[in-house]
Design brief:
This protein is α/β, with parallel strands linked by helices and 409 residues long. Helices cover 26% and strands 29% of the residues. It folds into three domains: 19-84, Archaeosine Trna-guanine Transglycosylase, Chain: A, domain 4, CATH 2.30.130; 91-199, RNA methyltransferase domain (HRMD) like (Transcription Regulator spoIIAA, 2-Layer Sandwich); 221-408, Rossmann fold (3-Layer(aba) Sandwich), CATH 3.40.50.150. It contains ten helices and 20 strands. The strands form four sheets. The chain has a seven-stranded mixed sheet, with helices on both faces. Strands 2-6-5-4-1-3 form a six-stranded mixed sheet. A five-stranded mixed sheet has the order 7-8-9-10-11, with helices on one face.
Length: 409
Amino acid sequence: MTREFPHLSNIPTPAEKRIALRITSAAERALRQGHPWLFDQAITSQSHPGRVGDLAVIFDKKRRFLAVGLYDPDSVIRVRILHVGKPASIDQAWFAGKLHAAAQRRDPLLAADTTGYRLVHGENDGLPGLVVDRYDGTLVVKLYTPAWLPHLQDVLSALMEVVPANRLVLRLGRSMRQHNLYGLTDGLVLYGDELEAPVHFMENGLRFEADLLRGQKTGFFFDQRDNRARVEKISAGKSVLNVFAYTGGFSVYAARGGAREVVSVDVSAPALEAAVRNMGHNQLATSHEIIADDAFDVLARLKAEGRLFDVVIIDPPTFAQKQAQVKSAIVAYQRLTRLGLDVLRPGGTLVQASCSSRVEAETFFDAVNQAAIRARRPLQEIERTGHALDHPIGFKEGSYLKCLFSVAV
C-alpha cells in the first residue's frame, strides 16, 4: 500500500529514462565482488546527463546489464549501487523486499527484550547512504546522500508496510544540508505526532531515553550493545569509570551488573543529565557521579587526585574522518590508553574502543598495546570484538567498530 507523505510532495520523481554507463575493468570487478560505490573516475562513457536520484544502469564490457544504482552528478561517488546481476525494477516492491530482509536479520533482538536497534545499516544492507534506526514505535530515517530524495515516497511506504510505526522522523547527514532539499529539514516529523520529549525504548531489558532531534547519530549508539552487555558481566562489586559516556549506556549496564560505583565523564552536560535519567528509568541505586568536562583533562585530574578504578571504559568519537587524520587519531588513542591506565588499578580491566573506519582494527589494537607497554602496564587481552548483529559488514569500508577488553598488570 502506498502512503502519502505531504512533506515529500515537492520532490520531483526520477527521470523515466535511465542513464546508461560503461566503466573501467577494475570498477567492473569491484561491483561484481559486491562493492556498493561507483566513483566518477571509473566511468568511461555516459548516455546522457542526469539529475540527482536518477537511476543509472551500468553495463559490462560485453554490453550486458551489470548493475543499477542511484546517480549523483555532484558526488565523487557517482553511483550508489542498489542491485547487481540481472535487470530489476527499482520500485516500492523492490524496496519492500530489501527492508523485509533487513528486518528479518534483526528478529533475534526482539526476543532479547530489545526495541531499539539499527533496522537498516546503509550499504551493508544493500541500501547505500540510507540508515533506519528503530526506537520502539518511532523510526528514524537518516539520509547521507540527496540521491534518495526522489525515491523517499516509495521507500517510506515500503518501510511502513514492513515495520508499521507510530512516527517517522527524518535526519540528514551534514553533507546533505548544502543541497536543495525541497523544504525538508533535519528532525522533520514525516508521519505521526510531533516530538515533544525524548522517546523511550528497551535494550536487553533496560529502559533508555533518546533525543531523536538533537542527539548524536540518531539519538543513541546502538552499535555498542554487545560490548555494554560484556561490561555488565564484569562489573559486580567494581568501581567503573566510563569516559566519553554520552547518555550513559555503559554506565547503566555496569550498574545493573552490580558495580558499587560508576563515574560517567562527557563534555556534554545535557548528555550526562540524560545518563542520570537513564539510571532512574531502571531504578538503579548504584552510586553514580557525573563529570561534565573534556575527557583528557578529567583523566589527568583523576590521576592527580589519586583515584583508581577497577574498570575503565574509553569509547571516544571518530578521530579520523579523513585519511590524513589517521596518524593523529592513533596518537590520540595511545594518549587515552596511557591516561586510562593511570587511573586503572593493577589487575583492572581496560575497555577501549574505536569507531574510526579509516583506522584498521590491527592498527588500533597494536597502538593500544604499544602504548601500554611504554607505560609499563602491558595488557593481557581478554577479547577483541567488532560489529553487533544489527550493524552487519557488507564490504571492507563498512567495518569501523573495534573494541579491546584487556587486563592491565
